[in-house]
Protein: Acyl-CoA dehydrogenase
Organism: Myxococcus xanthus
Amino acid sequence: MSAGINTYKTDLREIFFTLFEQFGFGQVAGQAPFDAWGPDEAKAVLSETYRFAREVLGPLNSVGDREGCRVENGAVFTPTGFKDAWKKLYEQGFKTVGVSPEHGGQGSPMMLQVTVEELLSGANSAFNMYPGLAFGAAEVVAECGTPEQQKQFVERMLNGTWGGTMCLTEPHAGSDVGAAKSTARRNGDGTYNIRGTKIFISGGDHDMAENIIHLVLARIDGASPGTKGLSLFIVPKLRINADGSSGQPNDVGVGSIEHKMGINGSATCVINFGESDNCVGELVGTVEHVGMSQMFKMMNGARIAVGIQGIGLASAAYYNALDYAKDRKQGSHFTKWKDPTAPRAAIIEHPDVRRMLLDIKAHVEGIRSLIIKLAMHLDKARQLAGKDDDAATYHKGQVELLTPLVKAYSSEQAFRLCAQAIQIYGGAGYIQDYPVEQYTRDSKIFSIYEGTTHIQAMDLVGRKMGQAGGMHFQQFMGDVGSFIEAHREHAVYGEAVKSLAAAQEALMASAMVVFGWSQDGSKFPLIPLSANRFLDMMSEVAVGWLLLDAAVIAEKAKGSVSADHPDHAFYEGKKYSALWYARNVLPNVEQAAKMLTIEDTSPMDISDAAFASV
């Protein structure tokens, strides 16, 4: 693949279907606080975003992968073209589509923002991490900071003047955040001296923004151990002058950058705070020792963002593999495989290639639906707050419940689906002439950062399912059940809906099994041993449901178009995505439920020495 050549592609028709036909964007837009938005405005934004993704970000994807970032004299320099792309990104307003007007944004529904992010991330995940992290950090300050902090930091971080990061991980404290050793010493003027080293800091330094605002977890001298003793601090790379401009260095140094398997255009930094004991930060807000709860506001958004990264790359891999399969001729048609004189067929005619393509297509469409559904819940919760508190609580609860599914299932499937795209290419996919090998390398990190898959699984079974006395989970199951009852006898999808019903029943039975384990201390280890499996089961039920929901909508719409209309074939595609998933994935839920009842503890029973004799 030549440097500077765009390979990103997607299908806006598919995105429009999910946004407008399946989830009713027009029913959310046009009402406060989204009065200025409607389907036409959303389509215009997405069309323009797709142009920018293909013309600006897409050509830089391979450039960033080949060049990576470099450190010179303690400063990070991003790959060729990134700095100009950053400027254009903000000039054209793509990162402020969903930002509140009070902070200089356009105030769109989250449903539109997540689709914009899919296009930007799909075209260049490494680049889009920089503004994404600044956005997340700004949201924390906007929600938790003082009015003065909001005025000083938020708009500059949202409009690209300043970048932003989240600084949790330390060399000895990865997922175990409570073991952090970074310290904060109170100064007489209300500020704090910050000291410590943070690692794996995405976008920890770069040359695209004037300043970088770090959100740093540290322990104030004398605070209690563990996560309860942590506070969150605003620590600029450059100190802020009285007039709000960036001033002198703030004793924040780049120790090094990591050389990684993928996302090479994203600078993953070791950051040293206060090596000269002259790093000054200020508490986010006014309350000490609430750093974890504040940081989790950014973490939850970041986890959704990782799910979006996953769908962006899986979708890009799919459309590239599909084009290659239509063009590449290899072997004869399967009906003539014994005829050596038969003409070579495009590989899309081979059954196994078609199987792989449909598998990717179904997962991409279903995961995108899951992400947009979560965004719809966010939008409705915001609209209904103070008007219908019960309904708003329902929507907020579904956001809580679905977030670990979006993060974990999308990230795990992205890596698998990108690797499957390589398989469609065959040997050609393994070389850098085609983009799918980079997509695969880039996507592996998604299941690791912002909380590993197992952290998401334990969050689901240990926290989210029990919230509100289990009400959120029960409401989710009720939503699936209502769909099943409405369509169990559907002329086209009746059998597939019955498969969904069987999977739902298996999921509910497994939820009761897990609950039983939580009540029996002797069986508690079965929960972490099985949490990932349960998360997969619930994700598969959710995706299977949404694919069938889309197929039912498409079946009805198909009746209004002629057989030669492009939408006829498009709607047929929705049918087979749903049927494939129902027939080939949903049965896994029942099997997984049976495996849970075995209560296998062999990973705990095996001794350390028995793992290997070396």
